[in-house]
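EI: anyone free to look at a 536-residue chain?
SC: sure, send it
EI:
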Amino acid sequence: MGPPSKRSGETGSRFGKKFRHYSVRILLALGMAALCLALATPLAMKFLRPALLHYLLDNLSDARRSELYESLAARAGQFYDAVPEPAVGRLGKRGVVTRYRGAEVRINNAGMRSSTDYRAKPKGVFRIVCLGDSYVFGTGGPEEDRFCDQIGEFYRSRDIRAGGKSIETYALGLDSWTLSQEASYLSSRISAYDPDVILQLSVSNDITPLAGVNGLGMATYEFSPEARQWGSGLFSNQAARYFGERNFSALAWSLSPQSRKEWGRAFSALGRLVELQQGRQGKILLSVLDYPFSGQFFSELYTWHFRQSQLPVPFLVTSFLPSFETQLTHDAHPNRLGNGHLAAHYVHALNRLGWIPVPEPDLPDLPEELDLDLNREPDPDRLQRDREEFASTHLRSSLDFGRLTREETRAFLGGIFPEQGGEKALQGYPWASIRSGFLMSRLEGGRERRLAVEVRIPPLPELFPFRLTVTVEGTEVASLVLEDPGTSDQHRLEGELPSLDRRELAREIVLVASSYFAGIGNPRMKSFRLVSAQLE
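SC: here you go
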């Protein structure tokens, strides 16, 4: 066959040109369509998303609506559920599977973190219940790494029994649960759980109220879980967090009547649990975590209150020996090794008590820093030194609320909020809720005789008639009554101070207002601004 003709070459050339021409047009059209779609989609979704959501909510069954809510809660990384028991406050939302603080969390039928449901105790089973907060919950780490789970695994792997019964462990704890909450929870369910042994662990944020639960299953510091009548006037060991201070407030350190009231309430709830457990012939071991980096002198203070309570139970000071080796890389809670130290300490203590004997060769290695003194006494000299150090570092006899430092905000008991968050939190005069409280340091030699407090009341009609009372150690020393907004502005309240033991290091000032205002979409209850306070 000869070479292609000139005509056939021209035909091929024309075909190639048309192909390229139409290809370019098609690509341009597709590009324009993609651009229009990209521009139009957000606008369309802006109008369609609410309509779609309303359609779903209007047409979903109750079961599907509940499923959607649980899915949203799980994606939020939070899992709390408010419960009607005021002393318990919250549990986990049953059935939620989520990630929290870097670890998978499964909430079981009891509202606790566990991959298995909690049931009535079968015959032939010896049940250990570990009771506490985030350390029992296992914040930040795998479920199987928790000290309670490691205790159960230790006994199972060695076929160690108690009175011929197999041993199982249940972990009852939620992140930031207080001692009052956890003791009240188990006290009302002690027949259902039927524990043979209770291992209760307290840590430095367990004494005072902390957080409520909002509608999305998230912890909130905006209102009180246990005393809702005070709303945003919650006294919390996190009172200074709004001002950028993450360490615990003065409420935890037993320096004033309000703090001692919280300790009394906590040990009252614990005493009830002890009474119930011993009344049914069960055993209970109380323990406190010695964690100096955040707990300060908490373990010493706890030991003192425990001795004052005269509870007839053994008591253990324990630790996971905080270090880079025993802590999670992303969180201050213990890793598997740290939890292993706690587990070993409890196994040795239970053996020492004779509650669950373990053959000597089978006992786990116990770090030499952990002792088995089950009758420890407090060190009053160390406790006094620590109290004095806290008071000298964080308390002042004169406060200018418009020029606070972060150190000074640790004197707050609660009910005090900045105008703005973040870096501007310490700028300007803070708001007080319907109940606000703070501590002040005493003058040298206890020479203070009077208190002067300056406040600023905004001219909002919902505040009037307005009444404000100022108490010191629970005794009213001054009050203010205003009938209408025309009398609002800056006011000075003065009063004589009640007598106080000279050994006390602080004065407790609490202001209670009769009314409040709140913003649109803002649940925080505000009443007036704090300007200054002065001991004279």
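EI: Residues 6-59 form the longest helix (54 residues).
SC: 👍
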